[in-house]
Write a structure and sequence with these properties.
- By secondary structure, the chain is α+β, with helices and mostly antiparallel strands.
- It has helices spanning 25-33, 85-95, 110-115, 153-159, 191-196, 198-204, 238-262, 267-276, 287-291, 311-321, 367-378, 394-398, 404-414, 423-429; strands at residues 4-6, 13-15, 18-20, 39-42, 57-60, 67-70, 76-80, 97-98, 132-138, 144-147, 168-175, 177-178, 181-190, 207-212, 218-226, 281-286, 299-307, 333-338, 353-361, 383-384.
- Helix 10 (311-321) packs antiparallel against helix 11 (367-378).
- The longest helix has 25 residues, at 238-262.
- It is globular and about 55 Å long.
């Protein structure tokens, strides 16, 4: 097993002194207890930060996967922490179950997804961590504990978005529901109209989001709504799905990005062209096949959660100031929404939120763009996604999270020697 690690975007790297690959809970516990210095679990590497970087002992969870138990009547499913969302969705589908809400990427492990606050969209829905009913963790001394709303509730409130700071998650128990079909409607609309009707669109649709190309006038809107139980899916034909998603959104868009990277003056007209040629499509399918989309074109990303009411202000500033940047922006901006929750370091803690994600094609300058975005989002109290690029440290984050000190106090109690701390956690938690 290689000791070298690099994330999906190629922006973060680390070399561990050793890698262990546990196959059962006893081996996982021994791997943690026996670590002489620090220990971190390796996920899929899909975070854009170094939250998953291990510099001493790395725990490779690729052999610690699969569903442990499933109760179809209650919907409670316990899954090992190294299981990817893609594998989990497939297994739930076979059981006639589904996750209530998902993001648009399924490469992450379930533990990594909840630990960094991965979310989808929907004004009445929280992030993936809100679907967790219980967690099992291996603590610094190798002991195994369970937390839930009734058992160690403070650890449960902190550990669902725990950044790997309390221990290595061994299993996750999820509240799932019977499989359901989503009707998807995607179409281009003028950005001004989308913003004017935002509250209505969020209220009238189960899952609403949109993409805005910074130099274009149009946004691509996506409305996903649940169909009655027993509805028969009517997916896109294999040919159209290949053309629309594989060719247009990946192969062709990737080629356009490479042209823009090579010839920077072409970025703005190419971006406007991408906005102008957006097309409409409508179909239905089982939920996870609608939530998840394929992403082959590599990018760097920063994302902030802002108060829902502040979204027009933030986008207004970006619309005004992004065209003034010296380096052009190739990728669209993604906007989603989520309901408030009670998880201590969730970006939606105690407030209904809008998520704004900015991207840049790999190999193109992004620092000035991301700094501008961070400044604009920070002016309204924005909270950075834990798995996306940001520059904030503990003092700035403490001011944005009411339970920040409770989180760090609990971390110090459970891991006084900093066995689970890496440089990223030192920065964001002030360890």
């Amino acid at each position: 097993m290689t000791t070298a690690w690099r994330n999906w975007a190629g922006t973060e790297a680390a070399v561990a002194t050793e890698v262990v690959r546990p196959r059962d809970l006893e081996e996982l516990s021994s791997a943690v207890a026996g670590a002489r210095r620090t220990v971190r679990a390796r996920g899929s590497g899909h975070s854009f930060t170094a939250v998953g970087a291990a510099h001493d002992r790395a725990v490779d969870l690729s052999a610690w996967t699969g569903v442990v138990s499933a109760d179809v009547d209650t919907g409670l499913v316990t899954v090992r922490s190294g299981t990817t969302l893609r594998a989990l969705n497939a297994e739930l589908d076979r059981l006639g179950l589904a996750m209530t809400n998902l993001g648009d990427i399924d490469a992450q492990t379930i533990a990594g997804a909840i630990s960094t606050g991965t979310h989808g969209t929907g004004a009445r829905f929280g992030g993936i961590a809100t679907q967790v009913a219980a967690l099992e963790l291996v603590l610094a001394d190798g002991s195994v504990v369970t937390c839930s709303p009734d058992e160690r509730p403070e650890l449960f409130a902190a550990g669902r978005v725990g950044l790997g700071a309390f221990g290595v998650v061994s299993t996750v128990t999820l509240r799932t529901e019977p499989s359901f079909v989503l009707a998807a409607a995607e179409r281009p609309e003028p950005l001004d109209d989308v913003l004017a009707n935002l509250d209505r669109n969020c209220a009238e649709n189960d899952h609403f989001e949109f993409y805005w190309f910074p130099y274009g006038r149009n946004a691509l809107t996506k409305r996903n709504n649940r169909l009655p139980a027993g509805s028969t899916p009517e997916p896109l034909s294999p040919t159209r799905r290949f053309v629309e998603y594989r060719f247009m959104e990946n192969t062709l868009f990737g080629a356009v990005c490479r042209v823009g990277r090579a010839v920077r003056p072409l970025v703005r007209p190419l971006n406007r062209l991408s906005s102008a040629v957006l097309s409409a499509r409508a179909y239905s399918d089982v939920s996870h096949k609608v939530f998840v989309t394929n992403r082959d074109v590599r990018f760097v990303e920063s994302e902030y959660a802002v108060p829902r009411a502040a979204l027009p202000e933030v986008l207004g500033e970006l619309r005004k100031r992004v065209p003034e940047l010296p380096d052009p922006v190739m990728f669209p901006v993604e906007i989603r929404v989520a309901a408030a929750d009670d998880i201590w370091l969730s970006t939606a803690y105690e407030r209904d939120s809008a998520y704004i994600a900015v991207h840049q094609f790999v190999g193109m300058p992004y620092r000035a763009y991301f700094d501008l975005f961070e400044q604009v989002a920070g002016a309204v109290g924005g909270r950075p996604h834990w798995g996306k690029t940001h520059s904030l440290g503990a003092e700035e984050l403490r001011a944005r999270y009411p339970r920040f000190d409770d989180f760090t106090k609990l971390r110090a109690e459970l891991d006084p020697d900093g066995k689970f701390v890496n440089p990223y956690l030192k920065r964001v938690l002030g360890v």
